[in-house]
């Protein structure tokens, strides 16, 4: 059988080249305030359009309230993706925290309170997403600033994995400044070690604060930083993108 060119193989509106992988991104929006100090959700939406991921995990997202804009709603309307909020701060005046945007259906959603003592409220948004027939567990989080806080939060996240049959993606802003920090060493015991690419700050990236961890590890194809003129100013973090082998598609074309 002679293989057809990528450009002419279509599956549910996607080319063969795109359908054979899942594109997963994590992005700290910095409240949709760019490095120029301007609140500009439309710039964030334009960066998401540049990336065109299947799933976005977003941090520092304004989620509405009587005194706060709903940036997630704006981004949902710009992208036409499914939106799942995961507020860590939730009051009548202001809702703020994590969120997921996805082109695929969301089958279940859980939230995990990772708040530590009197420090800023933190959490994880834990969603089962049906990616073309294969369900992935996507855990989107933003960990704390103190090392003791991050260690406790990672232990709590790992203990919550009660569905080991599902492939898992853990991603977000881990706030781990040290390459060999205890938080990262603990995660390596459960996940494939992905490339640590520098995403912060966008003016001069020095730190790999944003991470994507995948299990099983052999599904991870590569990780990229999305560096463009627009993404440099839209937030103080660059987006990080993982390309993951789409098992449902590859198995459907075999035989």
Automatic annotation (TrEMBL):
<dbReference type="GO" id="GO:0016020">
    <property type="term" value="C:membrane"/>
</dbReference>
<dbReference type="GO" id="GO:0004527">
    <property type="term" value="F:exonuclease activity"/>
</dbReference>
<dbReference type="InterPro" id="IPR036691">
    <property type="entry name" value="Endo/exonu/phosph_ase_sf"/>
</dbReference>
<dbReference type="GO" id="GO:0004519">
    <property type="term" value="F:endonuclease activity"/>
</dbReference>
<keyword id="KW-0540">Nuclease</keyword>
<dbReference type="Pfam" id="PF03372">
    <property type="entry name" value="Exo_endo_phos"/>
</dbReference>
<dbReference type="InterPro" id="IPR051916">
    <property type="entry name" value="GPI-anchor_lipid_remodeler"/>
</dbReference>
<protein>
    <submittedName>
        <fullName>Endonuclease/exonuclease/phosphatase</fullName>
    </submittedName>
</protein>
<keyword id="KW-0255">Endonuclease</keyword>
<dbReference type="GO" id="GO:0006506">
    <property type="term" value="P:GPI anchor biosynthetic process"/>
</dbReference>
<keyword id="KW-0378">Hydrolase</keyword>
<dbReference type="InterPro" id="IPR005135">
    <property type="entry name" value="Endo/exonuclease/phosphatase"/>
</dbReference>
<feature type="domain" description="Endonuclease/exonuclease/phosphatase">
    <location>
        <begin position="25"/>
        <end position="237"/>
    </location>
</feature>
